[in-house]
Amino acid sequence: MLNGVYELSLDMSCPEAIRKLLSNKEKIKFIEKEINLDKYIIHSYVDTKDKRWSKSPVKHLKELRTMSINMIQNRELLIEKRLLNLGYKLNKNNSPEPLDNWI
C-alpha cells in the first residue's frame, strides 16, 4: 500500500508474467479501480509523508517511479540508452537531484 492506495502487481519470478511483459509491444498501463481485498495479503505499507522518510528517496517514491517508468517507456531511444540514462539520473553524485530537474 502506498499512501493509502493498494497496489497489485505481477511477480517477476513467474515465467508467465515475464513472458506476457516481454511479448507485449504496448507500453505498460496502470489501471485504477475499486476491488474487494479480502483475498489479498498486504506485504508493506508506505506513507511517504511519514517523518522517518523525510531525508530518504522513499519520500519521493511515487515521483521517482513515474519518472523511471516514463524514461524506460521512451521508445525513441534503444533500451540500453534508456537504462543508462535512468541509472545516471538515479545515481548522479550518489545523491538525487531535486525532482524538478528530472520531471
Overview of the molecule:
The protein has 103 residues and is mainly α. The chain has one domain. It is 33% helix and 0% strand. The chain has 3 helices and no strands. The longest helix is centred in the C-terminal third of the chain and has 13 residues, at 79-91. The two termini are 24 Å apart.
Count of separate structural domains: 1
Biggest sheet descriptor = none
Average pLDDT for all residues: 80
Class by SSE composition: mainly alpha
What low-confidence regions span 5 or more consecutive residues with pLDDT below 50?
none
**What's the end-to-end separation, in Å?**
24 Å
- Range of helix content: 25-40%
The backbone outline, from C-alpha atoms, is flat
| Total beta strand runs | 0
Name the features.
single chain, mainly alpha, 103 residues
Task: Please specify the SSE layout and strand pairing.
Layout: H1 15-23, H2 61-72, H3 79-91
Give a brief rundown of this model.
This protein is an all-alpha fold and 103 residues long. The protein has helices spanning 15-23, 61-72, 79-91.
